[in-house]
Specification:
Radius of gyration of chain A: 21 Å
CATH topology of the largest domain in chain B: Rossmann fold
Strand content of chain A: under 5%
CATH architecture of the largest domain in chain B: 3-Layer(aba) Sandwich
Largest sheet of chain A: none
Order of helices and strands of chain A: HHHHHHHHHHH
CATH topology of chain A: MetI-like fold
CATH class of chain A: Mainly Alpha
Radius of gyration of chain B: 22 Å
Oligomer: heterodimer
Strand order of the largest sheet of chain B: 6-7-8-3-9-10
Shape of chain B: globular
Helix content of chain B: 25-40%
Shape of chain A: globular
CATH superfamily of the largest domain in chain B: P-loop containing nucleotide triphosphate hydrolases
Chain lengths: 226, 353
């Protein structure tokens, strides 16, 4: 018990006084998860708009595919990516295994279904008349779609927050294709070392702080946009 | 006479259902045209086609003698705008709602401010700029929707049941604005309505529409002068009867609609008239009771139409009256076909057309 209390004390001291390694891990995690979320949002939101606003033959199948993919085990996706990116794999020539790039790709693939599913639901929940309304006020097809997106902003932002939180908290993919370089993987590795508990606790506190701060910041931003 | 818009042989089919069937209609510059017809007759579809947000399955539309095509539709759409029956507003401030169309048109900010101000004055909502549009009352929301259309100064404004869900006070304000905008700015207005009183007083012309077809077009006097067959065919659903009016001298007119049914109305009329009583204005009871209602009739239920939360009953009192009551009342009163009931409505609820 004393060891845990001492570890917490050391963790708070590290956060208070700063530590270059901790800072480096935290910033890298933010960068990797942020980049993965941005990439996933850049293709996920247009897909969600398409699924939410248009009717076409394969819509039901595509929606179901993304809904199912939300629950994909990260270890399974990590393994597939590991096999693809390993030296003997089809993408081995890229030579990006055990790099931040590999984690970004993996996490972007992981959170895409989340963004698509949540954002599609948000767009579908908007009054279908909004699209027509925008057009009657002179909007083009793309301007009218943007008006719908703006109405669905709460849901879309929620999708992005959930995706970012999922990416930064994710362990399986980062461990299998990235190695010991981001918050979650360092926490998992350090806890197994006798002297690693203070660092694990420090990084866990930082991880939780990032998740909470992101939520609060985005909610403030959302209010300002409205 | 110059036409602002013309529909030639327009048909619209949705999933195999014909919403509009070979419609031909000319709309004059600067007029108010009312599309009068029962629910589901195709009024909204016709308005959406005139707003260029719905394409006809067949037929052609001309706007200022120019045929509307895929190439020019975006440009022509800028000349027309529509206000929906249910006030649809963006989830933002009143100012941003009204400014939306102007921003699309790349109007400078200082001009937008002036125009929004002017539009809010028109709809009597000065000072509402910063209010959240979705938090206003239904009547205020509809006025914001109207202001958002008016601010664009389009050549034609399309109104879908503009007073359909409003209380009398807001309905009157909207009607006054429509009339004023048409007179002052010469804006052409096409409005869908099933309110005959409104159709009689507001428009220059009325197009009667039933089952996706335009049956008759004429001035209110022409349409209501002799209760036309088409009007009667759909108006019968809504308690419209032809009769002979005789003023009593005490501010009350008695209208004899036949079968020994005499209806008291507050309007001063004489001779051949049509009367209308809204199905929601009629009180239904299982026994006679003392009330201030001037019209009380005994009859029996001959038809029951379950519409979900409400039930429409046809009651034969010598003439068939439609009464709308809530499903809860219907269940609690244990009503059935052939149940003997009493109908009561005030003289002021009778609209004499």
């Amino acid at each position: 018990m004393m060891e845990i209390i001492n570890s917490f004390a050391e963790a708070f001291q590290t956060i208070f006084w700063g530590n270059s390694r901790v800072l480096e891990i935290a910033l890298l995690s933010l960068f990797v998860s942020g980049a993965a979320t941005i990439i996933a949002a850049s293709w996920g939101i247009p897909i969600a708009m398409l699924l939410g606003l248009k009717n076409f033959r394969l819509k039901f199948l595509i929606k179901n595919f993304f809904n199912t993919m939300v629950a994909i085990p990260t270890v399974a996706l990590g393994l597939i990516l590991f096999l693809a990116l390993s030296r003997s794999g089809p993408l081995g020539f890229l030579n990006i295994l055990y790099s931040p790039t590999a984690i970004i790709i993996g996490e972007a693939i992981l959170v895409t279904p989340l963004i698509v599913s949540f954002a599609t639901n948000a767009v579908e929940a908007i009054d279908p008349q909004i699209m027509d309304l925008a057009k009657t006020l002179g909007a083009s097809e793309s301007q009218a779609s943007f008006a719908v997106l703006r109405e669905a902003l709460n849901g879309v932002i929620l999708a992005v927050i959930v995706s970012f939180n999922r990416a930064i908290s994710e362990l399986g993919i980062a461990l299998m294709v990235g190695g010991n370089i981001v918050l979650t993987t360092v926490i998992a590795n350090e806890i197994n070392r006798p002297e690693g508990m203070p660092l694990s606790i420090t990084l866990t506190i930082i991880l939780l702080a990032i998740v909470f701060t992101t939520n609060i910041a985005v909610n403030i931003l959302k209010r300002r946009i409205k | 006479m110059s036409w602002i818009a013309e529909l030639r042989n327009v048909t619209k089919i949705f999933n195999g259902i014909t919403a509009l069937n070979n419609v031909n209609l000319k709309i004059s510059n600067g007029e108010i045209l009312a599309l009068l017809g029962p629910n589901g007759s195709g009024k909204t579809t016709l308005l959406k086609i005139l707003a260029f947000i719905e394409k006809p399955s067949e037929g052609e539309i001309y706007f200022h003698n120019t045929k509307v095509t895929d190439e020019n539709i975006a440009q022509i759409r800028m000349e027309s705008t529509m206000v929906f029956q249910k006030p649809t507003l963006f989830t933002t401030s009143v100012y941003k709602n009204i400014a939306y169309g102007l921003k699309i048109r790349k109007t400078p900010k200082n001009e937008i401010d002036k125009e929004v101000d002017r539009a809010l004055k028109l709809v009597r909502l000065e000072g509402f700029e910063k209010r959240n549009a979705r938090e206003l009352s239904g009547g205020e929301q509809q006025r914001v929707a109207l202001a958002r259309a008016l601010v664009l100064n389009t050549k034609i404004i399309l109104l879908d049941e503009p007073t359909g869900n409003l209380d009398p006070k807001n309905a009157t304000i909207i009607e006054e604005i429509i009339s004023m905008v048409n007179k002052e700015f010469k804006t052409t207005i096409v409005m869908a309505t099933h309110n005959m009183f409104q159709a009689k007083n507001l428009p220059h012309h009325i197009a009667l529409i039933t089952n996706g077809r335009i049956d008759e077009v004429g001035t209110p006097i022409e349409i209501f002068g002799s209760l036309s067959k088409t009007l009667a065919s759909f108006a019968a659903i809504e308690n419209t009867f032809a009769g002979i009016a005789r003023p009593t001298g005490s501010g009350i007119t008695i209208v004899d609609i036949g079968n020994d049914i005499k209806i008291e109305a507050t309007a001063q009329s004489f001779g051949k008239v049509s009367i209308f009583v809204s199905p929601t204005d009629i009180i239904l009871s299982k026994s006679s009771f003392a009330s201030s209602a001037r019209n009380i009739f005994k009859g029996e239920i001959v038809e029951i139409l379950d519409l979900g939360s409400v039930v429409k009953l046809k009651v034969d009192v010598g003439k068939p009256f439609t009464v709308q009551i809530t499903k809860r009342s219907f269940n609690e009163m244990e009503l059935n076909l052939n149940t003997e009931v009493f109908l009561a409505f005030k003289a002021s609820s009778v609209q004499v057309i």
